[in-house]
Amino acid sequence: MALFSVAEARAFDQGQLAVVGDYPDVAIEQAATDAKQFLEELCHVNFEPTNHIETLSGDGSDWLFLNWPKVTSVTAIEVDGVAFTAEELDTDDYDLGLAVDADLGILTRRCGYFAKGWSNIIVSYEAGFAAVPALVKRAALWIALDNLVVTTTPYDATDFNTGDVSYGFARADGYNGNWHKNPEVAKAIRMYTMGAPWLA
Q1: Is 123 exposed, middle or buried (CB count within 10 Å of its CB: 0-12, 13-18, 19+)?
Q2: pTM attached to this predicted model
Q3: Are strands 63-65 and 121-127 parallel, antiparallel or unpaired?
Q4: Where are the domains of the chain?
């Protein structure tokens, strides 16, 4: 899945992507995939529900860190080849079940521990926002637009002179080696990077 649809991309901003002959669906879909990958890897959070299967190493404690936060469900765990029972996976079972810190992606066994071992634990789970945040969708659209629309102006330019008129370009976050020049993209990255205190 993508953070925006082809139709949304064609209608975005000034409709730069509206002409199918210039920007076929496959090109927009690839740009959407690239934008999603960029934002999710940078912010380290999935912006829509995403399934993960991870191989982790136990350290003998009763807790385990998953690689992706905002966990919505844990569907299976195997330790040394032995699968957890339904009761051991049940987050409502306060005797045998599992406690999940959803925002941080931490699993805690209420009864027992994760045995020590090298790559001896396999966890299947779903993580991510239930719906794409509006600001993130707009950021993804801006990234796709920047990647698709050809311009002769350098990406990191601060001004442009036609000979008759000079133009100055604003830079978000002091853009000079930072993540993006577009202010909405920069804002989305700031607000949705996991660990930010204002993130809901």
Answers
A1: buried
A2: 0.80
A3: unpaired
A4: 6-47+133-192, 50-127
